[in-house]
Design a protein that fits this description.
single chain, 308 residues, mainly alpha, two-stranded antiparallel sheet, 4 strands, 72% helix
């Protein structure tokens, strides 16, 4: 188990550092390419980062959350959630890129890896998986923290699916406007919408897709009697993964001057995520996850060093 924890820690470090370097590349190097002349092998490093940087940070995030889920939830919970999240999200994305439903008319450009059916980069359903799992675990554990009569379990389960989907959609509030309009966009809208270039339909598509795959995953957990209960220490990794990805999108939107999406995302995403984490207790797994807390601190320090 310690070997798995070490790999998980490495993936988490890499995920955070890759996002820091991605921000530096998109916001600093792309607008000022002359900087590359002062860096050893600058042009080569920049080409590599633009060709594989997006793929790398998504793969590292996926691996970190998958190893975390295996360690804390068990193999059954991990597999059932992954099947639901990846299967349903790639179906939604293929429908979206070919028909315009449920997100609107958009097309993925290059930079996120091999495209399934020539339409959807394989990394996109992976991002739905790892961000969706982080959001759902925070929502489910936060809402379950208050306890309550057994007869209300179904209501808490429904609320967890809805809140988890809102947390996931809130990430897109700050991600999509900036990433589709940056100097090197990863996708574009055929018909720019009224919300900072995005159609409002996109939000409904995100919320609906999240509700479906989180609901299916929760249903599978109940059928197979997977009932992972997580405390505050055990939720550190999901919280950091969620906030790190939210922070990446927030900085991109700040650079683009999109302040309304940031405020909306903070109100419906970052703040509720932190409150869900704070609502849980510290009764289980303190020993094993103390190392995870250490890992987060080291990852943040590594990010600071990278920025310098």
């Amino acid at each position: 188990m310690r070997n798995l924890l070490a790999i998980e820690r490495f993936c988490l470090y890499g995920h955070v550092v890759a996002m820091v370097f991605g921000l530096a590349g998109l916001l600093w190097v792309v607008p000022h390419p002359g900087i590359l002349e002062y860096l050893p092998a600058g042009q080569t490093m920049f080409r590599w980062s633009m060709a594989g940087g997006g793929v790398g940070y998504i793969l590292l995030g996926t691996m970190a959350m998958a190893l975390y889920a295996y360690r804390t939830l068990g193999l059954g919970s991990l597999i059932t959630f992954a099947i639901a999240a990846v299967g349903i999200s790639v179906t939604s994305e293929l429908l979206g890129t070919s028909t315009g439903f449920p997100f609107g008319n958009y097309t993925y450009l290059n930079g996120l890896g091999y495209k399934v059916a020539g339409l959807v980069p394989f990394t996109i359903p992976l991002s739905w998986f790892y961000l969706g799992l982080a959001a759902f675990l925070l929502a489910r554990s936060g809402l379950a923290a208050g306890g309550g009569p057994e007869r209300y379990n179904w209501l808490r389960s429904l609320a967890a699916v809805l809140l988890g989907s809102v947390l996931l959609t809130s990430w897109d509030f700050v991600l999509d406007p900036a990433m589709s309009q940056t100097a090197l966009p990863f996708w574009y809208w055929h018909e720019p919408g009224a919300f900072f270039g995005m159609p409002y339909q996109n939000f409904a598509g995100w919320l609906g897709t999240g509700v479906v795959f989180m609901g299916v995953a929760l249903g599978l957990w109940k059928v197979f009697r997977f009932s992972p209960e997580l405390d505050q220490d055990q939720l550190v990794v999901p919280l950091v993964v969620y906030l790190a990805n939210f922070g990446f999108a927030l900085v991109m939107s700040l650079a683009a001057g999109f302040y309304v999406p940031i405020a909306l995302g903070m109100l419906t995403g970052a703040l509720p995520a932190v409150l869900c984490w704070r609502a849980t207790t510290q009764e289980h797994g303190a020993d094993s996850d103390a190392e995870s807390i250490e890992a987060i601190g080291a990852a943040v320090d590594a990010g600071k060093v990278a920025l310098k």
